[in-house]
């Protein structure tokens, strides 16, 4: 019996940072900024780092460093990248027996181009993540108190299988869906959301799911609370987080911290919240630890290097939760 099983993506990452990655305003860009460099040029890279990523493995490491017994469910290729992911998770104390190796392609891979500001552009190759097949998940062996479900590559039948197994076996569920899951829409996700104990999303994705404006966080929370059984966590980047539990609401900001790059901050927050909530059942403490975990992750390259260890919050103070 595990304390928690993390279910989600497994990715090999390479981080490239250069002062030559220039940011230019562009009104047609989804983020209003474009990261640019001259076509046909040779660009000097200031820093390079290799690491594993993906929501499933990132969350698993948070839980392991917090002292929980944890296993990971995902898919990788039979290649060097996949072997590196397995080796890293094993070093962290994560059980990898349930990670499926698919032999027809490469492990998912991301090239992360990091601007001097810490913002980044991610070139994402889905690879074997496209083959996250429900048929390869050994549900009969997934005995746990909690599931933490991250991106499943949009495989609806897999999400259905995971939720049904959790409900049938009284397993609590933390859910931080990826974009492919959200594309199914609110009507198809409603049957699952009524079983979720902790639902984590950012304000943009939350608004998209329930049909509100991202700026109207109150209405987004209200509509999410109507369909989610348990706690709703709505993150808002630099502006912190709002958490709803029934008629109780909690609000917190974020501490000032140096930013090397932001990859993995959302995973660190979500898994940090669930880990502390598992331990204490205290939402305020869960917000405080989640914020510290995310703040630490952005100070280093990679999604895992800055993940906090049990009883070691480093320099991060307890933020005020109202």
Notes on the protein architecture:
This protein is an alpha/beta fold. The strands form three sheets. The chain has a nine-stranded mixed beta sheet with strand order 7-6-1-10-11-12-13-14-15, sandwiched between helices. Strands 5-2-8-9 form a four-stranded mixed beta sheet. Helix 2 (80-91) links the parallel strand 6 (70-77) and strand 7. The mean pLDDT is 90. The protein contains nine helices and 15 strands.
Mean pLDDT, all residues: 90
Percent helix range: 25-40%
Number of helices: 9
Low-confidence stretches: none
The helix/strand order is EEEEEHEHEEEEHEHHEHHEEEHH
Portion in strands: 25-35%
Distance between the termini: 36 Å
**How would you classify the helix and strand content by structural class?**
alpha/beta
Largest sheet: 9 strands, mixed
Measured on Cα atoms, how large is the radius of gyration?
19 Å
The coarse silhouette is: globular
User: Reading side by side through the largest sheet, how are the strands ordered?
Assistant: 7-6-1-10-11-12-13-14-15
Number of strands: 15
Comma- or semicolon-separated keywords:
single chain, 322 residues, alpha/beta, nine-stranded mixed β-sheet, four-stranded mixed β-sheet, 9 helices, 15 strands, 30% helix
Layout of secondary structure:
Layout: E1 2-7, E2 11-17, E3 22-25, E4 33-36, E5 47-53, H1 55-65, E6 70-77, H2 80-91, E7 99-102, E8 109-114, E9 120-125, E10 144-149, H3 156-168, E11 172-175, H4 179-182, H5 186-193, E12 198-202, H6 203-210, H7 217-227, E13 231-235, E14 241-245, E15 248-252, H8 265-280, H9 283-297
Parallel strand pairs: 1-6, 1-10, 2-8, 6-7, 10-11, 11-12, 12-13
Antiparallel strand pairs: 2-5, 3-4, 8-9, 13-14, 14-15
Helix pairs in contact: 1-8, 6-7, 8-9
């Amino acid at each position: 019996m595990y304390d928690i099983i993390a279910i989600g993506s497994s990715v090999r990452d390479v981080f490239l940072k250069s002062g030559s990655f220039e940011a230019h305003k562009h009104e047609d860009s989804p983020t209003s900024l474009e990261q640019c460099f001259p076509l046909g040029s040779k660009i000097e890279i200031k820093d390079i780092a290799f690491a594993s990523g993906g929501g499933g493995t990132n969350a698993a490491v948070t839980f392991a460093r917090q002292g929980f017994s944890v296993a990971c469910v995902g898919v990788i290729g039979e290649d060097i990248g996949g072997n590196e992911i397995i080796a890293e998770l094993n070093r962290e104390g994560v059980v990898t027996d349930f990670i499926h190796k698919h032999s027809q392609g490469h492990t998912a891979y991301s090239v992360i181009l990091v601007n001097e500001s810490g913002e980044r552009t991610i070139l994402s190759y889905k690879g074997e993540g496209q083959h996250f097949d429900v048929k390869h998940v050994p549900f009969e062996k997934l005995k746990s108190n909690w599931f933490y479900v991250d991106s499943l590559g949009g495989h609806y039948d897999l999400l259905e299988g995971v939720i049904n197994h959790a409900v049938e076996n009284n397993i609590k569920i933390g859910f931080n869906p990826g974009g492919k899951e959200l594309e199914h829409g609110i009507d198809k996700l409603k049957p699952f959301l009524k079983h979720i104990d902790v639902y984590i999303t950012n304000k943009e994705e939350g608004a998209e799911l329930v049909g509100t404006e991202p700026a109207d966080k109150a209405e987004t929370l209200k509509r999410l609370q109507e369909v989610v059984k348990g706690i709703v966590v709505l993150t808002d980047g630099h502006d912190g987080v709002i958490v709803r539990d029934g008629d109780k609401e909690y609000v917190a900001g974020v501490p000032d911290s140096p930013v090397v790059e932001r990859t993995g901050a959302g995973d660190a927050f979500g898994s940090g919240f669930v880990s502390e909530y598992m331990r204490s059942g205290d939402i305020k403490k869960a917000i405080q630890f989640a914020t510290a975990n995310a703040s630490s992750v952005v100070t280093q390259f990679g999604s895992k290097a800055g993940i906090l260890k049990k009883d070691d919050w480093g320099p991060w103070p307890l933020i005020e939760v109202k």
